[in-house]
Structure formats: structure tokens, C-alpha cells
Design a protein that fits this description.
Distance between the termini: 113 Å
Number of helices: 2
Strand content: 25-35%
CATH topology of the largest domain: Immunoglobulin-like
Radius of gyration: 33 Å
Number of domains: 2
Strand order of the largest sheet: 4-3-6-7
Helix content: 10-25%
Shape: elongated
Structural class: mainly beta
Oligomer: single chain
Largest sheet: 4 strands, antiparallel
CATH architecture of the largest domain: Sandwich
């Protein structure tokens, strides 16, 4: 008798078109130039890490300056790179107004030298930096200049 007074039950509405079931699948193996094209992901990762660690940027060491008198200064330093030759790399200077835009070329022994005249009372931080043939920036070498 109760069913006479109750509204009829509705069937749940269809949710539209059937949806595709999503699942996580394994990625294909990554390729490493010096290995087989079907590497497992862990092997590909170790290969990539080896390539990254092999390419280190050049380093400028022993960056110094010496005052020769009359405003003449000699800036010098040594460039090293475990991956490639540094001979012929261009070292760019900055920091001081008289050094902006100045460059020096790395010689056969890995050293570079720049002779420049600084303006009177031009003191501050001189900088030097180079870029490897692979396009990696070296450290920014600094030297505090104080004219006497």
C-alpha cells in the first residue's frame, strides 16, 4: 500500500559515451649515442650522467694584476679545461671602466696577459671570464685593484 503513495524510482542516467580507461605504461628506452638503442631506463640515465660529468667548464686560475707604474697594469691568469684545449680561447675583461671590452687570447701554455692603462684612482674589482669551444662559461675570476 505504501508503494501506491511513493513516487516511482528513477534509473540512474547514463554518463554519456564510455570513457577510455587510463593506465600508466612504461616509457620506451632512452637512446644514448654510444650504446644500443634498446637501453633500459636506468642504463640510459647513467649514460646521460656520464656525458654531463664529462663536460666541465673551463676554469680561470691565478688571476692577478701588477702595477708597472704610470697607470700601466698587467693582468694575467691561467685557463684550464679537462675536456678540450684552451689555446686560442678569448678571455673577456670587465669590472673596471678601463677593462670593459678588453680581451686577451689564451696562449700555448694556457696563460693570458693583458697590458692596459687604468685611469687615475680607478680602483675596484677587475673580472675575467672565457667560454669554451663547447659553449660553457668559465668561472668569473676577480682581482681587487688598488692603485698606489
Amino acid at each position: 500500500m505504501l508503494s501506491i503513495f511513493s513516487p516511482p524510482r528513477r534509473q540512474p542516467a547514463a554518463c554519456g559515451p564510455k570513457r577510455a580507461r587510463l593506465a600508466v605504461e612504461a616509457l620506451e628506452a632512452r637512446h644514448c649515442p654510444s650504446s644500443s638503442p634498446t637501453l633500459a631506463p636506468a642504463a640510459a640515465l647513467s649514460c646521460s650522467m656520464a656525458l654531463l660529468s664529462a663536460h666541465q667548464p673551463p676554469v680561470i686560475r691565478n688571476f692577478t694584476a701588477s702595477e708597472e707604474g704610470g697607470g700601466e697594469w698587467i693582468f694575467s691568469g691561467q685557463v684550464t679545461d679537462p675536456n678540450e684545449s684552451v689555446v686560442g680561447l678569448t678571455v673577456r675583461f670587465g669590472g673596471l671602466t678601463s677593462l670593459k671590452g678588453k680581451t686577451a687570447t689564451v696562449e700555448d701554455d694556457g696563460w693570458f696577459h693583458l697590458v692596459v692603462f687604468l685611469k687615475a684612482n680607478e680602483n675596484g674589482c677587475a673580472t675575467a671570464q672565457t667560454i669554451s669551444a663547447a659553449g660553457l662559461n668559465s668561472n668569473l675570476a676577480e682581482y681587487l685593484v688598488h692603485q698606489t
